[in-house]
Amino acid sequence: xxxxxxxxxxxxxxxxxxxxxxxxxxxxxxxxxxxxxxxxxxxxxxxxxxxxxxxxxxxxxxxxxxxxxxxxxxxxxxxxxxxxxxxxxxxxxxxxxxxxxxxxxxxxxxxxxxxxxxxxxxxxxxxxxxxxxxxxxxxxxxxxxxxxxxxxxxxxxxxxxxxxxxxxxxxxxxxxxxxxxxxxxxxxxxxxxxxxxxxxxxxxxxxxxxxxxxxxxxxxxxxxxxxxxxxxxxxxxxxxxxxxxxxxxxxxxxxxxxxxxxxxxxxxxxxxxxxxxxxxxxxxxxxxxxxxxxxxxxxxxxxxxxxxxxxxxxxxxxxxxxxxxxxxxxxxxxxxxxxxxxxxxxxxxxxxxxxxxxxxxxxxxxxxxxxxxxxxxxxxxxxxxxxxxxxxxxxxxxxxxxxxxxxxxxxxxxxxxxxxxxxxxxxxxxxxxxxxxxxxxxxxxxxxxxxxxxxxxxxxxxxxxxxxxxxxxxxxxxxxxxxxxx
Length: 486
Prior knowledge:
The chain has helices spanning 9-14, 16-32, 38-63, 78-104, 110-128, 132-150, 157-188, 193-202, 207-224, 233-240, 243-267, 273-295, 301-322, 325-353, 368-371, 373-387, 393-407, 411-437, 451-469, 472-480, and strands at 67-69, 74-76. By secondary structure, the protein is an all-alpha fold. It has one domain. The chain has a two-stranded antiparallel sheet with strand order 1-2.
């Protein structure tokens, strides 16, 4: 279409992924009303996967049409494209992983995929938001769908509890964020990120009030990334939610929350980053320490991965604290790599847990290498990557994060972060010991791995190794678009 006759065409193209996901979610919701048998419902999961694939194509189209859209409320740039692809990739893995899981739990309905598409639409909107109100709208769209997904298995009391906790605590955190946005508007007269930066450069009546507003917004962001001291919800929610949803929550929403946090702080509040550095420094250290030491005592694999997710949020916070282009690129690479290796681990848990997720403790992992050697080998890849062993994506992720910290002269934080990584090796290696050095106590026959779940396991393992050998495939792109405060 010619922009001369359709002047808004470019703006629509920059918003194309969200348009595709919203239309697809609405159509699938209508289609669900006409589909009753299991075969028909499997068609809906296929259509959901196709819709996410089209949204990925829409992301490429949006990237090829960079610029602002809708009165500068949205921005299409490489940074937005990167995180759109990350969350859409996690969403596609969730569809592949969830189909057989929902059939096993007798809960295979189209509403699950509709909620997933709407959650992804909100996350993509957050990645492209150039305005604090758009950040809030995207956050609410994503969060409301995520609250329901966490308790999707209605007869599971654990899921109901996790959904309720997630909703209540998330609502409080969102209120802090919105209150901070209101204060920023009151001080600067705008919620646009560039206009806020200009207003701060010119001077405002009270920088103390602005700093307090930024603190309130930081509370909202810290909850979404499960950073200390706002991390208490994560282990409970990850343990109670369906395993594919736990993997989704640990990778997609967390990645885009970091994206928004980086864009907002570097674009609008770059002048306040020196004041924020001590706060972020302490928050990063506390998040790593609490996550790693709490994970050491867990017997439930999902809960252990929940605390592990907190610790990894602390590593990414180290890169954010460095407040540099190198740190931003390192955070982008790490979030993409973490999405692959962590979702792969949750895919293994989805398979091993069995019906009703009754086999999720360390005892149930005993002798896994004897019963299912391929599954044990894949889990080994993911755990070694989470530790940060060379030739895995996790190694280069941590290497670039700590390099950015050293470049910013944060030597103590780097040293303490490396010590935390050593602590983390204990509880990851404990799983390997149980799998390979203990006899199996299970007498149940080995279940065949469903096709979608098998694709998820092998694909995430392959990406974990590929990024460990060729990190430049992602890092070069991340480095190109790491500077946001132009």
